[in-house]
Every structure is written in C-alpha cells, then in structure tokens.
Amino acid sequence: MSTSAAAERASHAAGVLVLGNVLATLADIVVPLLIVRLLGKADVATLTALLLIYNTAALVVATGFPQAVMYHLPGRPRAERGAVARKIAGSMLVLGIAAGVLLVLLGLYGRSLLDAISPVDGDDVVDLSPLLLIALVPLGDLPGRILPNLLVAEDRPRSAAAYGVFRSLGLSLCTLLPLTLGGSVWTVAQCLVALGVAQGIWVLLSLRSLYGRAPRVPSPVSLGEMIRFGLPLGLTDVVAILNNSFDRFLIMLTFADVIFAEYQAGAWQIPIITRVPYVVGTAMAPQLVEMFRAGRPRDAIALWRGSIEKVSLLVVPIALVFVVAAEEVVEILFTAEYAGAAPVLRWYSILTVGRVAAFGSVIVAAGRPKYVFQASVLSLLSNVVLSVPLLVVLGFVGPAMGTALAFVPIAIFYTWTIGRASGLPTGDIFPLRAYAKVVAVALVGGAGARALQLSVEGSAALMLLGEAAVLLAVFAVLGTALRIIQPEDWRYIKAWLRLEPLTRRSPPRDDD
Question: Of 193, 218, 253, which marks where a domain is finished?
C-alpha cells in the first residue's frame, strides 16, 4: 500500500473514531456537571474515588493485551486473525477475574488501610465497601476493552466508534439515573454490573460477526508470545495509570474528602480534544505496523509526523482557551463552590497543550514495546520527584504542577527512543518547528484573550465566550495568513462538521 493510500485510510478511520469519541465524551462531560449539583462534596468525593480505584485496578491487570491486538492481527488471513482474537479475549476474561479478586480485597480492607496511612480524620475518608459489588464489572468490561482496537484492525472504525458511544453512555446512565431517582452508591454499583454483562455480550457477538464464517485454526501466536509482547505493555499500562492518578491519590491521602472533591473538579484534561492524538494513533497503527514490517520506517515516521502537525492545529488553541479561562470554566461547570479548582485545571490544560502525539503507537508498531515501558517509568519517577516536593512547598496546587512539568522529560525521551526504534536521526522524528509555529500563533491569540479578561467585567459565561472567540479568531486568521493552516485543513474541518467521515466509505484494504 502506498503512503498516500495509507494516509487516506488512516485519515478516514481517524475521522470516524474522533466523531465517535465526540458523541461518547458528550455523556462523560455531562455526568460530573450533574453530580456536583445532585450531591454534596463528601458524596462526590466517595463516588469519584470509587471510580478512580476501579479504573486503576482494571488497567493494572490488563497487561497490554488490547495493544497486542494491533500488532498481532494486521497482515494475517482472517482465520488466523480470528484465532488470535479469541485467545486474547479469553485471556482478558481471566484477567477480569483477577481484577475482581483485587477489588474484593480493597472493599474488605480498604477503609482500614486508609485509616492507617492517612492523616485525615476517619470520618472524612471515603467508604470503599461498594467495591465488593463492583468487583463483578471487570468480567465483561475487561474483554470489552479489546473491541476498539480489534474493530479498527478489522477496518471497522464505525463499529469501534459505536461501541465507544455505547460504553460511555452506559457509564453515564449507570451513574446518573440511580442518583437522580434517589438511589445510593450501591445502586450505581448494581447498574455498573449490568453494563459489564452487556459489554461481554457485545464481545461475543463481535467475534461471531467478524470470524464466524472463517475456518477454525490454531492460533499462530502462542499465549507465551502474547505475554512476552504484552507484558512490557502491561507493565507500561500499570505505570501509566499510576502516573496519571498519582496526584489524585496524593491529594486523597493528604486532604479531607471535600478538598479531594475540589481537586477532582480541576484535575481533568479537555474532553474530546485530549483523545484526538490517541484516536489518530490508533487509526494509523495498522498502517504503521505494515510499513515497519515492509522495511519502510521513514514512510511510517512521515505519516506520523504529518498527523502531529494536523492534530496540533486543533489541540493547541483549544487547550489555551482553558489555560486563559480556567476560572470561568470552573464556575460554569462546577459552580462557584469549586472555584479553588481553577489553578489545577490551568496546569492540566498546559499539559494538554503538549499532548499532540501518540508516541507509543510508533514504538509498538516498530516492535519495541520495551521502550514504552522505560518511558512510562521515567514519567512516573519524574512525576513523583516533582509532585511531592511541590505539594510540600505549594500545597493543594503542587501535584497538578508536577504532573504537567513531568511531561517535558518524557517527551524528549520518547523522541529519542523512536529515533532508535526507526533507525532515523532524532531530529527527524518530532516536527518541533511546525509545532512551535502553531504554539506561537496560538499564544498571540492567548495574549489577546488575556487582555480582554483583564479589561472587561462580565458573567463567567460571557467572559468565556469572548475569550474563546478572541483566541480562536486570532489563531484562525493569523494561522491562515502565515499558511500554517492550509486550505485542505479547512476542507477537512468542513467535512467533519457535515459528519462526512461517518457516511463516506473507507478506502479499500488488501485482504484475504
């Protein structure tokens, strides 16, 4: 397949997946906004802590199998792909059982553990006993986590997007409906179990749809090979989730539950926008794998670099809107009661400005997952080294600042390792000059938005609207004038607004 054809196919798949993520994330956005209005801060802290612990436990035991799908399926006949997919799904079920056991232990002994290590009074720590019921969720949820990658590998991006919407809406409804109807956290747990069952059924139906007519053959990839490939990625997932959650666990252990709820209100990266580089990386993964296997690393890096240049046009200016308008955003979304979360959100938005590339997808495609693990360890160590002292010195906002600053060394290390994995000079990996131009133009718009913020008074909604309009308008006009934004970029945005990626057929792929 030519580079241009690969780019076209990846672009189509990325468009479908991003639009699917948009629809799914709309539900994710609504849930916390309603929860803070339905519950007091202490109850918000309990619910968010339970979800944080579940997601951490689920990812800890996933061991990289979802990523292994993208490496072991491309280029194989359908029958072999089916054998590999079924083996991975079965392995995820076993891991779901392991996750359930871990959650049961946390439900039984978590409160005692918190009382032992936290300086917070026992009445102000969260109740972890609902984890005893939530322990059933990973039996369906963990096998379901391979579906997005599996469906993309089988060139079904619309099905992958549909599953993402289903899962996100399901999580939202399972959280909101019980609370709206006067239910408790235990009722939420019951709904989550039902959703897990539905996810397991979806996995079975998808496997039958994809491979039901293919002959049954032995898997060409042994479980040992999958573990050897997936273990570094699994350890990477463990380290990555600990890294992403470290600041929140740190706040949960050192501050009262109401303060933890306030920190949680700011400790998030911008929905939809944050997912774009990773969705694009997922969409490109099959093409990257094929290019590396064909001995074309330069073509693979060229495809990846081009995606970064385009993704930054979307991510950077929107992230800077949240950097400038953090106070207004927090007041609108979470009410003035959570105003203390604004500095946390500002640092998280600064982090989003830098997240324009899915570094790991290139390293995995090149068959060097150990580099991803090394990078994740460095990221966690950097986070700990920065966040703990900043917590001591600056207090509440310190961990958020440490989380953002820790991204700098990891980006440098990732670029160096991609150069080693591809055999190309480090300077040819990340499009730093193009990215810097995008940031510079967006900062000009940010300066204009900040000037408006300092000179005009108004409601939070009007101020946010004005600041966003100034920043984005300056970026669009100046970026177009300097040809940083190309005519084809505007045409692509127009196509998205018309939802064309959901209706246009994917470019054909070479298959059996």
Answer: 253
